[in-house]
């Protein structure tokens, strides 16, 4: 809902799930990765964290926070061989997006289509396992059909 009408509990529950949850997971895995001097952490954020979205101040803030957490963690962990990156999906075909009016969404996406879950998974797989991603840290890969470049 709109920010001025948003209940504090609605704000907090979204922050807890989408930002605090990422913090807790990052903290939980970081100790062993730092000790091993190896590891790749991949956070899932959203293009909404880069551009905002009316009626989603809580979600936008949480996802922007994930980007900040990703970059801060990357700076802290880099000297110990641990990379931290994020994937920011745009509109992806899913149960959540099935009910949306697709016409205005597709007009905002230069590729003219919604993404597939497999495309998000491929970006995560690249960051997790591809040797080419070993020199990437603190980055946000947008899987959004070009939506945010506008």
Q: Alpha-carbon distance between the termini?
A: 25 Å
Classification by helices and strands: alpha/beta
Q: Biggest sheet: strands side by side, in what order?
A: 1-2-3
Annotated CATH architecture: 3-Layer(aba) Sandwich
CATH top level is: Alpha Beta
Mean pLDDT: 97
Task: Give the helix tally.
Answer: 5
Strand fraction band?
Answer: 5-15%
**Uncertain segments of ≥5 residues (pLDDT<50)?**
none
Question: Biggest sheet, in brief?
Answer: 3 strands, parallel
Question: What order do the helices and strands follow?
Answer: HEHHEHHE
Quick one: how many beta strands? 3
Q: What is the gyration radius calculated from CA atoms?
A: 16 Å
Shape: globular
Q: If you consult CATH, what is the topology? A: Rossmann fold
Share of residues in helices = 40-55%
CATH superfamily: NAD(P)-binding Rossmann-like Domain
In total, the number of domains comes to 1
């Amino acid at each position: 809902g709109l920010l001025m009408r948003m209940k504090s509990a609605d704000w907090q529950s979204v922050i807890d799930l989408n930002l605090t949850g990422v913090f807790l997971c990052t903290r939980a895995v970081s100790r062993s990765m730092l000790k091993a001097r190896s590891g790749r952490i991949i956070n899932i954020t959203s293009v909404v964290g880069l551009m905002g979205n009316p009626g989603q101040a809580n979600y936008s803030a949480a996802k922007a926070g994930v980007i900040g957490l990703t970059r801060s963690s990357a700076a802290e962990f880099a000297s110990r061989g641990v990379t931290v990156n994020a994937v920011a999906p745009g509109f992806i075909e899913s149960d959540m997006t099935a009910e949306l009016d697709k016409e205005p969404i597709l007009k905002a996406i230069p590729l003219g289509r919604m993404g597939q879950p497999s495309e998000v998974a491929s970006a995560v797989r690249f960051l997790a396992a591809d040797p080419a991603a070993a020199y990437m840290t603190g980055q946000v890969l947008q899987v959004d059909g070009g939506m945010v470049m506008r």
